[in-house]
Description:
Shape: elongated
Low-confidence stretches: none
Number of helices: 4
Mean pLDDT: 93
Oligomer: single chain
Number of domains: 1
Order of helices and strands: HHHH
Largest sheet: none
CATH architecture: Up-down Bundle
Strand content: under 5%
CATH class: Mainly Alpha
Distance between the termini: 15 Å
Structural class: mainly alpha
CATH superfamily: Oxygen-evolving enhancer protein 3 (PsbQ), four-helix up-down bundle
Helix content: over 70%
Number of strands: 0
Amino acid sequence: MIDRYIQVIQRTMSLTSSSLECIQYMVYQLEAGNLQQTIQHLHDLVNAFSHMERSLLLYLVELPPNEIESLTDDLRDAIDSLVAAYEKQDAGKAFHCIQELLLPAYLSWKHELERSMLRYTLS
């Protein structure tokens, strides 16, 4: 049954890698104090996550048991905290949110996606 979602799964997995690159770029820019240079990247990251989350809803119930839902909630909370820091235009808080909340949550979420979808992405 999940075979009909193979292309969506593969695109989602590709987007996870691009999103990680986006986060890493934001860290680099925020370390230099360049909050304004990262605003578009934040927008892109939020849109990418939203797209991946909607895609997951198509086939999540058909995957083997996993922790994707709870890790998605954690990641959403981290993104919300980051957006709040940007709304306050607080580069230090944004950097802290990425380092302490977003990046760990994202890496755990991405790892669980990769683990859960490995057999579908090998084809």
